[in-house]
Each structure stands twice: as C-alpha cells, then as structure tokens.
Recover the amino acids of this structure.
C-alpha cells in the first residue's frame, strides 16, 4: 500500500490490528503517512482516519465475516464518493 501512495504526500494508510506489531512502529517511523491503530477494525471511528474520506478499505478481520461486516457498516459513511 505504501508503494501505491508513493507520489501522493497527502495520502494515508491506516492499519488496524488488535495485536501490537513492532514492524508497524518501524514503518510509522519511516513514513509518517502510515498510521497503525492497535484496535479492532470493527471499532472503527471516523476520528481514526482524521475524518478523511476513505478511498480504499481492505478488510481482513481475522477472517471472520461478522467483524468485516461490522467494520464495513461503520466505515460506510466515511467512504469517498
């Protein structure tokens, strides 16, 4: 994802996981456009993404449909037109 936004200084990649990932901290240090949120994507809040419109949302959610559906319902209003 970072390669996809390489030429856009305003773009952001927000990553959610309930577990801490040291490599995510390294990526945050290397590129401030990457933001790691240690929380479930099913707990999405528009403030998480600075109330920015969401162009692309990729759901993994531990491969559980119920969490992906909940996350989608929460993020739907933040999706870019």
């Amino acid at each position: 994802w970072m390669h996809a936004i390489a030429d856009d200084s305003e773009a952001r990649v927000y990553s959610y996981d309930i577990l801490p990932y040291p490599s995510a901290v390294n990526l945050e240090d290397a590129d401030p456009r990457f933001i790691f949120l240690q929380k479930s994507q099913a707990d999405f809040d528009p403030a998480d993404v600075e109330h920015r419109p969401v162009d692309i949302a990729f759901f993994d959610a531990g491969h559980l449909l119920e969490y992906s559906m909940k996350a989608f319902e929460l993020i739907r209003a933040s999706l870019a037109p």
User: Anything to note?
Assistant: The first strand starts at residue 13 and ends at 17. Strands lie at 13-17, 34-38.
